[in-house]
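Fig. S4 source data, part A: sequence.
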Amino acid sequence: MRIALVADLHGNVPAVRAVEDDIKRRGVDKIWCLGDIVGKGPDSPDTMDWAVRNCEIVLRGNWDEGVGTLDGKDRDSSAAKWYRRQLGEERVAKLASLPLEHRFVFCGKKARLLHGRNTVPDIVYPDSPIEQRLQFFNVEDKPDIVGYADIHRPFWIQINDTGILFNTGSVGNPLGGNTLANYAIIEGEIVSDTPICHSIISVPYDRDEAIRRTIARADLPNGAAFVNELTVARYSR
C-alpha cells in the first residue's frame, strides 16, 4: 500500500497540479490530506475542491478552522470573511465538518495523523524541545508513528524509544528555504508487522504562474506576503 500525504495546499493551484501529476506517475494507491486546504493563496475554492475530490481522508487544519468553524479564532477577521465569501456557504460548512485527526494501523504499528496547532498546544519543529515533540505521542492509545503538517517543512525523525515523528511539508506554501512543492509517501502493509518505507518528495512547479495568479487577485488579504513566501520560502506575514 502506497499512501501519498499532502497538506497545506493554501490556494496554490499550479503547485497542486504538479503534485497531482507526480503522484499519478508514482502509482500511489491513496491520497490523504492533513489540512490547510484554504487560505493564504488566491484559489482556495479550487484547492479545496481538489482535496475533497481526490483525497480519501481530509483533515481540518488551523486555516480551515479559522475560516470554517464558529469558534475559530480568526473567524471574525477581515481575512477570514474574505475567504468565506470566496468559498461560499457550502464549502465553508464542509470545512467545519472535517475531522481533526485520523488513527489507523500501518505496518503493524499504531499511527496518528493530524494537522498541528489546532490539535496540540504548540507549533512543533524538528528541533523543538523534546517535551513539545512528545506531546504528539502523549495521548490515549499512544501511537508509534505520528505524521503532521502545519510548519511547512518536511522531516522524518526517530524520537528516542518513543516512535517516529514526521512532517509532510507543504504543497502550496513551502518554507524553510525550499521553494518546491513538498509531500510525503509512506509505503507498507496496513496490518502486518513489516518495515515502513517513506519518502519526502519535492516537486518543481510553475511558481511564476502562482505568483501571477496571486498578483492578479488584487484584493487578496496579505497577497504581497504570500508572493514573497513563494519567492524565498521564508515566512513573511
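Fig. S4 source data, part B ends here. DSSP finds eight helices and ten strands in the chain.
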